[in-house]
């Protein structure tokens, strides 16, 4: 049985790929596979599954792959494991690519050229947050229950599978159900202080959550925007009881 955290590097630049592979293997903490194309990366994932090995916990993904745009791989990786941390590492630094990557399910985006120390700091921050949130226990608000062991939001009889970032966002909102949570607080809690200027990260993941929990994401009833401040989650029965108690 593997006791190392498995990382997949998908990078066709041999210098960068070798740098990541060699440095990540230092300290014997991570098991690292490096592939140079989309097809090879998908094959590596399937082989792990065929041999009943745990899925990759982290994927470092370049976008400029020789056989396919790396953006196309993000949803595919998400179908393989909702728990993976997907960090895009790309020379494409324009805002449109970053937004699209997050909309498709990426957890972070690092633009080349990058400092290896920053890459490792981001990796370790993501892994710390995953570890903390998976050991905090379930949150129950009315008919809503956030199951930390399975990364599932249960609403009545409905189960909704969440990715890492969706799960972390829902945990913050559900814990503060009925009250406004400032966008900057969400950003710092999930992505850290190095991303303070990237407020669109929060908007993108709020929209992803709405698409999963709302009957019409364009007319949200549960996850509400408080203009210029942040967001508020309304769980009907729980929020009504909470308001009545505060009035009494």
From TrEMBL:
Residues 136-235 form the OmpR/PhoB-type domain. Keywords: DNA-binding, Phosphoprotein. Residues 136-235 bind DNA. GO terms for molecular function: phosphorelay response regulator activity; transcription cis-regulatory region binding. It comes from the Bacteria. The modification 4-aspartylphosphate is found at residue 62. It holds the Pfam family Response_reg. GO terms for biological process: regulation of DNA-templated transcription. GO terms for cellular component: cytosol; protein-DNA complex. Residues 6-127 form the Response regulatory domain. This is DNA binding response regulator KdpE.
């Amino acid at each position: 049985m593997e006791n190392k955290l498995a990382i997949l590097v998908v990078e066709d630049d041999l210098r960068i790929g070798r740098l990541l592979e060699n440095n990540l293997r230092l300290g014997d903490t991570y098991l690292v596979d490096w592939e140079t194309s989309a097809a090879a990366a998908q094959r590596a994932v399937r082989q792990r599954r065929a041999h009943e090995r745990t899925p990759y916990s982290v994927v470092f993904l370049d976008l400029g792959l020789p056989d396919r745009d790396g953006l196309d791989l993000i949803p595919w990786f998400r179908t393989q494991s909702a728990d993976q941390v997907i960090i895009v590492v790309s020379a494409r630094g324009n805002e449109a690519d970053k937004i699209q990557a997050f909309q498709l399910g990426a957890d972070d985006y690092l633009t080349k050229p990058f400092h290896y120390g920053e890459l490792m700091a981001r990796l370790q921050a993501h892994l710390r947050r995953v570890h903390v949130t998976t050991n905090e226990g379930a949150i129950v608000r009315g008919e809503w229950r956030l199951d930390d062991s399975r990364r599932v939001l249960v609403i009545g009889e409905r189960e909704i599978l969440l990715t890492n970032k969706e799960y972390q966002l829902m945990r913050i909102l559900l814990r503060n159900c009925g009250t406004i949570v400032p966008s900057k607080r969400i950003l710092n809690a999930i992505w850290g202080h190095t991303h303070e200027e990237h407020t669109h990260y929060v908007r993108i993941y709020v929209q992803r959550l709405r698409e999963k929990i709302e009957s019409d994401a364009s007319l949200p009833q549960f996850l509400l925007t408080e203009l210029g401040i942040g967001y508020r989650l309304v769980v009907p029965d729980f929020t009504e009881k909470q308001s009545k108690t505060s009035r009494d």
